[in-house]
Write a structure and sequence with these properties.
The protein contains 5 helices and no strands. It is an all-alpha fold. The chain starts with a helix and ends with a helix. It is found in: Membrane. It comes from Vescimonas fastidiosa. Keywords: Membrane, Signal, Transmembrane, Transmembrane helix.
Length: 144
Amino acid sequence: MSIEFIGMACALGLSAMGSAFGSGFAAQASVGAWKKCYANGKPAPFIMVAFSGAPLTQTIYGFLLMNFIRSAVEGGCDAALAMFTGIFAGLAIGLSAFFQGKVAAASADALGETGKGTANYFIVIGIIETVALFTLVFSLLLLQ
């Protein structure tokens, strides 16, 4: 076994773990916000489904990074560099998903209570998404 496989596994695994936790937090908050809406006789915004699913994209980034690591090593990239890139980038992408879920949870709660601010909530969620995108792109540049 070569050490780059550790990086590949971490790139996908840590990203997916962050997505699982993040979407779990957001989904729980969405259900709670819907419950509040129903209890108060207000319409329950369906857009909260998007809050719940927002952290899932980081799993895709982890999968892409895993494949880029494999291609980079096949192209002559140092296996240790590939391993550490996968570990640290996977962790950064996973943390992005984790905190994106926390913000999406707060967004669902706020939207359920006020019915206002949807665009603002998505802007903040998008800022956190950018951390994962930057990590993916900068990791690809490092592996070249």
